[in-house]
Amino acid sequence: MQVKNHKLAKSISDVGWSAFFEKLKYKAERYGKIILQIGQFEPSTKICSNCGYYNSEMTLSVRDWVCPDCGMHHDRDINAAINIRKFALDRQNLIGI
Fold first, then answer.
1. What ranges do the domains of the chain cover?
2. Molecular function terms in GO for this entry (predicted)?
3. Which end of the chain is more exposed for a tag (fewer CB within 10 A), N or C?
């Protein structure tokens, strides 16, 4: 989201995300779904979703990588999605199938 008023940019963006999240929660409840949240700073892209290795050297420019421990090839976004699901299920003490 591009916000032109730099003095209010963070506040405007926060309100936008807050409103979106409230609508999302409403829709989820309406359809009997559950929304699971994780922390904003969880290292979802830097952790191997297969073995749990933490790749501390990875920068934002890296789009895919191979885990030095287990050898699994990861697409950054797919790996992050898998880890986000794991973090959310773990936080809620749920098991993913």
1. 1-33, 36-97
2. DNA binding
3. C
Instruction: Tell me the whole-structure pTM to 2 decimals.
Output: 0.65
Residues 12-44 have pLDDT tens digits of: 666 677 788 888 899 999 999 988 777 778 888
| Residue type present at position 74 | H
Which residue type sits at 91? Answer: R
Q: Are 12 and 18 in contact (CB under 8 A)?
A: no
Q: What is the DSSP string of the chain?
A: ---S-TTTHHHHHHHHHHHHHHHHHHHHHHTT-------TT--TTTB-TTT--B-TT--TT--EEE-TTT--EEEHHHHHHHHHHHHHHHHTT----
pLDDT for position 11: 65
CB 92 within 8 A of CB 36: yes
Residue 15 CB neighbour total at 10 angstroms = 11
